[in-house]
Amino acid sequence: MTCFGLTTVVIKQIQQVFEQYPEIDKVILYGSRAKGNYRNGSDVDLTLQGAKINLDILNRLSTELDDLLLPYTIDLSIYNHIDNKDLIQHIEKVGRVFYRGTLKESSSSNVLVGDL
Fold first, then answer.
1. Is 116 a member of any domain?
2. Does the residue 48 lie in any domain?
3. Residue 30, Cβ neighbours under 10 Å: how many?
């Protein structure tokens, strides 16, 4: 395992799916994996940032990530669609950058996770 209980291989697989979507500016990891108190079987909470992300893209991403057959449940959300103020505060407090869009950053910046 590496950071947040995910292997480098798994992180790369997930990021490769995101690379197919230029609408994505950034993906933020939050929840127990970002806080460091995850357990075996903890889900992977990810929220998507980007002005052009919509429910169609979210559904396609969910399907593609599910097709990876990873041993984790990946919960996706669209950051701009989150109404829960407590959840937004949680993401802003503990969230870690999981992926940055390749058009805005060099692909080398997509390697792992960083601060918001």
1. no
2. yes
3. 24
pTM: 0.86
60 within a domain of the structure (yes/no): yes
Between CA 108 and CA 116 the distance in angstroms is 17
Residue holding tokens 């390697």?
111
Please name which of 70, 67, 8, 25 lies closest in space to residue 44, comparing C-alpha atoms.
70
- Which domain CATH number covers 88? 3.30.460.10
Phi/psi of residue 76, each to 5°?
Answer: -105, 145
Task: Report yes or no on 110 lying in a domain.
Answer: no
Mean pLDDT confidence for 57-84: 97
Q: CA–CA separation, 44 vs 29, rounded Å?
A: 7
At 59, which amino acid appears? N
Tokens 């209980």 belong to residue: 5
